Amino acid sequence: MTKPFSPEYQAALDYIYSFVDFSRTHQENLSPENFDLSRMVQFMDLLGSPQDEFPSLHIAGSKGKGSVSAFCASVLQKAGFQVGLYTSPHLMDFEERIQINQQPMNRDLLVEYVEEIKPAVSQVQGLTTFEIMTGLGFLDFARQGVDIGVIEVGLGGRLDATNVITPRVSIITSLYLDHTSILGDTLEQIAFEKAGIIKPGVPVISAPQEEKAINVIRDIAGKKSARLVEVGRDYTIQPLARSLAGQVFEIQRESDQSAVEFSIPLLGDFQMINAATAYAALDLLSERGISLDEEHILQGFKEVNWPARFEVLREQPPVIVDSAHNPASIGKLRDTIDDFFPDLSLILIFGISEDKQLDGMLDEILPRTTHLITTQADHPRAMDPEELARIADGCGCTIEVVPAVGEALKRGLSLAGEKDLLVVAGSIFVAASARIAWFESS
Q1: CB neighbour class for 170 (10 Å; exposed up to 12, middle 13-18, buried from 19)
Q2: For a tag site, which of 15, 132, 231, 339 has the least CB within 10 Å?
């Protein structure tokens, strides 16, 4: 349940959101020219370059970068480090984006920081909401003296506001076509933008990629003399067991043929890939001055918390919340549904942002769906649920429109019987609204 806002905190949020906010802007209004690191460089200089005061991991990718960030942060905290975690967007409260040891930034401190940075902000023309948020995150991590920051890219990589850091290790998770009007409409162009986080001499981990993507990553890593470690080649995965409580698998280092067994609470084959990607990065981090024991990794993986990623809210009848929001992630969601619930009929509560690849998502999930409830998060980019229902018409499933996410969840719960599975998906904003409604009614 979200906490009430003080007037001072609300004023600080209003200030942050008064700048251009690309996360709330329709994609047709965006252009690559809006993404430029020079503003962020100037802003950080005015703040005293706080991003240089702590070592970091930097994570880019189309899918899985949040989960990989969560795995890494969990392990590092278990090892006794004070760990800053910067991610976006938030599920419930804004300050979730800036955490230290899983504790969101203190709201009173955020208010103080906002007042402090206003003179610097006024000197940089065209700063965006995300750039200001990123600056606040770096400032907090520096002031609080974190031992390491785990920094998730917001959009792309090469020109993302977070790319002013020089990390100990860079990580590129699975790449797919997404944000094509900004990052390019081919996998090679997407890979070029994501691989823009690779720094000279800084090792980089890549999750398994399509050949077109990995070739670009290999080329850029080679030109920058950055050691490249590939999951699927240098680290391999062997599934062992799974249940709704989690999954067990082995990760094997090809360099010494050693295998380690892990347990994670996050479900889906892709989460094993994310864990292996994090494991490879943590291995390299240990080589670069951040010492970790195997036990830290075992415990950190076992206790990782990353909500709204195939999150089981109830087991019978099953209720799942997932933040899948592009064709690739919707396909992974469908695969996981088939793995765990092959015999259950799917009731899907679905709402998306207008700029997403709707046709591809519908092609992936509607053939598996028995009953579709279209809905709409309280967000300026949310698609009209009536329009969404119209586009989905003819899919072979029954369709109804329930605009408010909380009411859509109530409707889905009223329909779900012993042979049904209820899933909320399509947008992280819909997933967040469904979680709030669920926990407020529990």
Answers
A1: buried
A2: 339
Residue 57 neighbours by CB under 8 Å, 6+ apart: 69, 72, 148, 149, 150, 151, 167, 168, 169, 170, 171, 281, 285
Residues forming beta bridges with residue 348, ordered by sequence position: 372, 423
Cis peptide before 89 (omega within 30 of 0): yes
Q: Which CATH superfamily is domain 311-441 in?
A: Mur ligase, C-terminal domain (3.90.190.20)
Take residue 181 and report the two structure tokens written for it.
Answer: 């009007």
Alpha carbon distances (Å) from 149 to 70, 86, 121, 291, 301: 12, 8, 23, 15, 18
Over 60: is that where the pLDDT of 179 sits?
A: no
> Thinking of the domain 7-63+73-227, which architecture would CATH place it in?
3-Layer(aba) Sandwich (3.40)
In this prediction, residue 418 carries a pLDDT of: 93
Q: What is the mean pLDDT of the chain?
A: 92
Chain centroid offset of residue 183 CA: 17
Helices 294-302/269-287 angle, 10° precision: 150
The residue to which tokens 């690559």 are assigned = 32
Is the pLDDT assigned to residue 181 strictly greater than 70? no
What letter represents residue 108's amino acid? Answer: D
pLDDT number for residue 30 = 47
Least confident segment among 151-165, 195-209, 379-393: 379-393
pLDDT: which is higher, 229 or 180: 229
Q: Where in the chain is the domain with CATH 3.40.1190.10?
A: 7-63+73-227
